[in-house]
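Protocol step 4 of 5: obtain the predicted structure for the target chain.
Materials: sequence only (see below). No template structures provided, no constraints applied. The aim of this step is simply to have a reference model before the mutagenesis design in step 5. Sequence pasted as it appears in the construct record:
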Amino acid sequence: MSDDKKHWLEPPEWWKKFKPLRWAAIAGILFVAASVLYTAKVVIAPGPHAEKARFTEVVADPVAMIGTLKSYDSVATVRELLDAGKMKYTVTPVRPAPSSKYPPRDGDTLVVGAFSHLGVPGQLTLEFFNDRLYEATFVPSDLHKYVDKLHAADKRVKRERSGRSEVVIGNLRLATNVDFADTDVGRSLQTRPYVIWQDLRLMAMLDEWDKRFVARPGKAAE
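Step 4 output (structure tokens):
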């Protein structure tokens, strides 16, 4: 091999002659490496918010809702129950971008188009906050038949003069308008009948999240 032919691993002349250029090149490489590390650590994979555990905790004393469902049930648990009963349903998830600036606010809405309660078919809508069931709403398809069955099965639901009943028992809020919907006025107004079960602890936590953090993640999933 001739002396004037350079080896392919030999650095260029500017590298050997100009030391300041060496440091500039090294600084550039270090800057790029630092930027990549920052992006991976802060932008792509942000750390959890300090209150994440509180906004995702599961309690030992859930409240009974409709059927065998309980508050704090996970989406997977509910789906397993529905699958076992061969019921068809849809799940709509909402996943705001994770950030260290606010706790998670994942939501899921599960709708069962043909759910039977007290032997009456209807639509069941379940709402989840961070994979915990906090609200169940049942809309009967045969209202007249359902009203008497509901009062016979659950003495907590009173026949109020307004036609609307609401009761709070511990952490459970139970409310319904079926009596009003079954009146002549209710039918003329095409009132949509419902029975709703809510866990007040999760409702309060959801309200707290919205009051404190709603401006940060945006209205949907920023």
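Step 4 remarks: Confidence is low (pLDDT under 50) at residues 216-222. The helical segments are 13-17, 19-44, 52-56, 75-84, 143-153, 178-181, 184-188, 200-213.
Proceed to step 5.
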